[in-house]
Amino acid sequence: xxxxxxxxxxxxxxxxxxxxxxxxxxxxxxxxxxxxxxxxxxxxxxxxxxxxxxxxxxxxxxxxxxxxxxxxxxxxxxxxxxxxxxxxxxxxxxxxxxxxxxxxxxxxxx
Length: 110
Description:
Layout: E1 2-7, H1 11-22, E2 27-33, H2 36-46, E3 50-54, H3 62-72, E4 77-81, H4 88-97, E5 101-104, H5 105-109
Parallel strand pairs: 1-2, 1-3, 3-4, 4-5
Helix pairs in contact: 2-3, 3-4
């Protein structure tokens, strides 16, 4: 079973990802977080196998949270953002910081 933590400030996206990922019998969504700080706290607490991480969030943005996750508890991270297609610089920075890959958030909302 792959244990996933979803970190996104959009309730709609958290719900959509939970539903999509939960449809796979080999994936368990073990929690959700509403911002980067909450996500970092839950990564340390829940120790997921994989994290989906929004780039733009209040309190602690996705890239800042990613950097702290990699320092404190390295975990595979999939970045989600509406910036990924237009903001190649943000995407490349996320990959440099340790994210495995990225997904255009509009693909989730569709």
